[in-house]
Amino acid sequence: MAASVVPSTNNPYNLIVTEPPSFVRPYVIPDLSGPAVVLINDAIRAPINNLSSGGAFSLLQLNAQNYIRSGYGDLYQTPPHYHSRFHETFFCYKGEVTLWANGEARMLTVQDFGSMPTMQNHSYSFTEPDSTLLAFITPGGFEHFYWNVSVPLVDPTNAPFAPDIHTHFLESTFEAAIGPVFDVIPIFNSQFSYNFTNGTTNQSAPWHNGKTTAPNNAKEPYYLANNWSQRFLHRATGQVIQPRATAVQSGGNFTLSTMVMRGKAANETTVEYTFDVPQFFQILEGTMMIRMMCQTVAMSTGDIAFIPAGTAFSYWSEVAFTKVYLGCAPAGGLSDALVAQAEPWAYGVFPSYFGNLTNSTSA
Q1: Residue ranges of the chain that CATH labels 2.60.120.10
Q2: Which of 140, 173, 280, 330 is most exposed by smallest CB count within 10 Å?
Q3: What start and end residues bound the annotated signal peptide (predicted)?
Q4: Which is it for the CA torsion 299, 304, 306, 307, positive or negative?
Q5: Cα(first)–Cα(last) distance of the chain, in Å?
């Protein structure tokens, strides 16, 4: 089910777009829409880019099969590198993405998360035949590196990636692009561990068998396993928020979370929110309704909404269970507001009863 809209004549813009706008405005872009480029076997899209976010952040989506090219170590991977300006995060949307940072690594499966602050040596590899990586990067603009080392993806089927189309690695172009201009600084002869047991190279830290935690600073890379890190229940609305990066881990530059929500009750009202930071939603499961610019859009799996600062919006789940990935830059958006009025919660889903509906759906 693609995004659909209840049309309105009260605004000159249709919320649904087929590619990211070149200026800041609210929009919803359906899954796998917009221009794509291919780098060997990776299909790369930027549903939110530097222009559409006003420089606040970029949200890139990389779709690929398991790497088959020659590379580094036993698992083929991107060349080790670091960034001096960009804080890069990795969210496994589906499949498996192996992520190295400094001396250790994790195999990220569905909805696992990794954070790579500036100056941190890292690398990644797609390790399942149909995998998707979401890269939220601040500030915006990192997509320009990919645009300069790739070729346009021409695929009439609009598949996530084209497994039967292989492009020649543009070695000279790649070598010209690495360095300070695009802020990709290679680390030659970097040594990474490939001694994985149960998806991790660090047997002293839990990975899908115990609580994973984020550091209390913005300088260390870290990994969080899906539903194995801190969660909060906003009881009145039945929303469970799992922070992936807070102002503490981002130096105040952004917030990222996943959130599950129950279906809206018949007697439940929705509240209109307005924040002074730009933010996004991406649907992971279910169907979420979002209303802004006098239009209501039904968003399904993979669809993305961009909400500029100062834009009034409301949202609710149209089905029994919906899960979203959401974030903002700088910190101070919806998930921050919800967590501020939430309680610690031990479970990955909402309670089996309704909260206090007299409080409607306000945060």
Answers
A1: 35-213+218-222, 230-359
A2: 173
A3: none
A4: positive
A5: 29
